[in-house]
Every structure is written in structure tokens, then in C-alpha cells.
Amino acid sequence: MKLLLPTILASSTLLTSGCANLAADTYCDIAAPLYFDTPATIDTLLRQDRQLLVDIVVHNETHSRICGEDE
Predict the structure, then answer these.
(1) Is 70 a domain residue?
(2) DSSP states along 11-40
């Protein structure tokens, strides 16, 4: 029973040490605009998931405002 706590602590340390660390420190380093393949995609989203379309447009406009135009 005394070995249980150290084993749990060691296991959790091993599990978290394998996680990737982001070297990025700004929104522009980790965010990118979302593009549509065809205009038909926009039409489909207008009919079936308007909120997703709005969210994507807001994301793209936010990215453009904060990070400037696409490189």
C-alpha cells in the first residue's frame, strides 16, 4: 500500500512529460484562417448550419484584424 502513492505520482509524471509543448506565444502563431473549397460549401452551410458559417467568418475576420492579411 505504501508503494501505491509513489507509483501513481511517477505514472502521472510520465504521462504528462510526453505532452507536446507549444513554442508559440501569440494568437497568430497558432491560429490560421479557415477556407472553403467551393462556393457550394457556403451555400450548404447557409442552409444547414448557419451558426458555423458565422463562427468561421468571425474567426477569419479576427485573424485578419489581429495578424494582418494572409502571408
Answers:
(1) yes
(2) HHHHHHHTSPPP---SHHHH------SSHH
Query: In the chain, what percentage of residues exceed pLDDT 90?
Result: 51
Nearest-angstrom CA–CA distance, 54 and 27: 20
Exposure string of 47-70, with b = 16+ CB inside 10 Å and e = fewer, is: eeeeeebeebeeebeebeeebeee
Residue 44 lies in a domain: yes
Question: Domain range spanning residue 66?
Answer: 24-71
Give this prediction's pTM: 0.59
For residues 50 and 46, give the distance between their C-alpha atoms in angstroms, rounded to a whole number.
Answer: 5
Mean per-residue pLDDT, 54-63: 95
Give residue-wise pLDDT tens across range 31-55. 899 999 999 999 999 999 999 999 9
